[in-house]
Write a structure and sequence with these properties.
alpha+beta, two-stranded antiparallel ribbon, 4 helices, 6 strands
Length: 174
């Protein structure tokens, strides 16, 4: 009877020791993956796990940012495919798209080379509506100009409407 109890106790100890060794091995592997991104100082297992969680969160945010950029590129590519021999199919230029992202806006403006507005006018409209331009880019593809503007709402005041920004930009470019 004693030998059965002793062997059962020894078996539990062995299982637990193997579990701890396996967990230690996994934590070491995780720490080696993170060491490329963080300082080389010795950290406790808890600190290593916290750093891993922060790193994973940052990667998730980066993935979302890249997905947004990919979606925008696919929309632009779809528009490019709509052009055939300098003619548009189902698309009238200039085109304005305003995407409300909560406290920020993304403005996509596509026009021909001979547009009736200046980029400065577009920025002025945005500033009049209470947004601050954070980033603005443009590309020329064939005879089309693609403007992409990222703007931040200055204050979350009551009455800010992306629809009003869209309407004013549409009036400006037409």
């Amino acid at each position: 009877m004693k030998s059965a109890h002793a062997s059962s106790k020894l078996e539990r100890k062995t299982v637990e020791r193997n579990r701890r060794m396996h967990m230690k091995s996994l934590c070491f592997k995780l720490a080696s993956l993170l060491s490329n991104h963080h300082s080389k100082e010795a950290l406790s297992q808890q600190d290593q796990l916290e750093q891993a969680a922060v790193h994973i969160k940052n990667l998730q945010e980066k993935i979302q940012e890249l997905k947004s950029k990919r979606d925008l590129a696919m929309r632009v590519e779809g528009i490019n495919q709509g052009f055939s021999d300098g003619m548009t199919i189902g698309l009238r230029l200039p085109m304005v798209e305003v995407k409300d992202l909560g406290s920020s806006l993304e403005v996509v403006l596509i026009s021909g080379l001979y547009k009736k507005f200046t980029f400065c006018d577009v920025i002025s409209v945005l500033e009049e509506e209470g947004v601050e331009v954070v980033n603005a880019n443009f590309s020329v593809v064939g005879d089309k100009i693609f403007h992409i503007i990222h703007a931040q709402v200055k204050s979350s005041r009551v009455g800010f409407e992306s629809g009003r920004v869209y309407q004013k930009l549409k009036e400006l470019v037409h």
